[in-house]
Amino acid sequence: MTPQLWIAAVAVACGAAAGPAAPATAQERPLVGVTIETPETVLDKVLPITGQAAVATAATRVRVTVTPIGLPNQCGGARDATGPVGGDGRYDVEIEVRCNGRHRIEAVAEGGVPATATREVGVAEPPPPPAPPRSEHGAAGTKMVWAPATDPDAAGWILIVDGVPKALELGVLAEDVPDDGFTHIYSLVQQRWGAGGPGSEPVASPPSTNKTAVYYDDRPGGPGPVSVPEPPARADPPSAAPGPAAGPPASSSTAPATTGSRPVPTRGVGAPSATLPEGYQEDLPYGVPDDAFVPGSEPRRTPGSGDEESAAGTSPARALVRTSEEQAPGLVAPFALGLMLATVAVHIGWYLRRSRPSGPQQVKPG
What we know:
Elements: H1 3-18, E1 41-42, E2 46-52, E3 61-68, E4 79-84, E5 90-96, E6 101-110, E7 115-123, E8 134-138, E9 141-145, E10 154-161, E11 164-168, E12 174-176, E13 184-192, E14 203-204, E15 211-213, E16 216-217, E17 224-225, E18 257-259, E19 262-264, H2 307-312, H3 332-355
């Protein structure tokens, strides 16, 4: 057999021996090393670290180490954990970090041929809602105060006053309540630095529950607690149902009826109460209006009063209308009629005199 045939036979034999030894899943696993499948940005401080170990490594476990990058000392140092490699070559490990920011992940396959992989990720977990602010009264008035942050990666506060946000430094833990007598609504938002570490775009918590506060001054001679007036309740207008017939007739000097917060003046006997349109004023410039006259009724007379008071009414306006003929106001009409008849008689006599012939005339027979 030639040397070429010997080489071919050895190659075929080696291929047949190696073929059955490879499992069916070998083509889906990496040929060498170990992988890390954690995303580049994680929104949770508990990092889910997963990946695969290659068949060639024959690894039985993977040791994972997470190290902060450029974070302050309060964030701590490296943390590690070990997880087993399953039959499909996968591993799954969780490691909790203390701060948001950049971290380096290192995975090392153990139990067979050593293999290592590394990856950098950013952590940006929002903080939970902080405790709501509370009001404190002191010699300088009222303040809204809140507890300091305990997170090592805390970056500041956002105070929301009546719906308007206001950014505050981390060390600010109080805010004055305005001295205006109004109720103000406060809520608080905590901030942490983001995935880039200190100085990066912060992430904010949901707002706390709302708290209300009113200015209070307990200094000697101060106003003390300030009460907030409630808006007047708007009542429905009363119905126009007729009232009882008994009782003395109403006069214009009676206090006006009220509907809600707006007074409605009365208009005398028989006039129903009604709600005036907004902006309409019925008061006369010289006083209270006269009582309305009801058809079919006699003018109201006050015992002991004369014709003048009956004609002018009982309102204060009666003093503005007077007549000089107090004893016999009925003589004016007859006097005017006689004067007119005399004038007519004078004109008729003058006409007859003008139409009379100037001399005697004879009528000749025709």
